[in-house]
Amino acid sequence: MRNDSYEFLDYKVEDEIGILTINREDKLNALNEKVLDELRDFLEFNCKSTIKGLILTGAGEKAFIAGADIKAMTSMDSTEASEFAYKGQQVTFMFEEIRFPVIAAVNGFALGGGCEVALACDFILCSENAVFGLPEVSLGLIPGFGGTQRLTKIVGRNRAKELIYTGRMVKADEACEIGLSLKSLTSKEELIAEAKNIINKASKNSPHAIGVAKFVINRGADINLDEGLKVERDMFGEIFSSYDMKEGTLAFLEKRKAQFKGE
Question: Which residues are CB-neighbours of 173 under 8 A, at least 6 positions away?
């Protein structure tokens, strides 16, 4: 596609912050192959590093993403299902790999694949009507877009098992208590405003350093402490060759505001 003309995605930039909306409101923004293809295309070709950060949300008030399209899944065989899961995993991995902050602004239901997409973002903000869950086992399935892995890293193994085994729903207050969501806001408007506020605060710092820190944090989640410390040490040394490091330290010494370039 390589353009901004999508059937199920709306994208706009406000004050250098990208807002990406899954727009399939009549289906509660459920993910089918077309939506995944459009997300993959957007993330590959249209998500520019010139923005400060990206906010991901769902159209309407009822759902962020209510899950994968179950009707479309019922006709899949094992090979097609595996390919569908791979496509979903590609999309979640691409969200995770974006070098600038990505915030999931969860309004309403974030179930199944929707919860998994949110988990791939840097963090989640939710409205008071948000409901999270990985209910796949109630359909004889398991999470397939990374939920078994990312949920475990965020809330811990035992809590992740309890949520996945029971398939129970988690409302906004509990989501914040267990570390699934960073904060709960009253309305969708407040939700987007708070996401913008966080991105704007982050944008005062070095975009390059944020990108490196994100890489180190994400990489460290997959390896043991010794290996993680080595990655941190190596990247700490490498960042000393960047423009932003030289500018940031010089600005500190000269008692002025740093002019970062993100390189």
Answer: 184
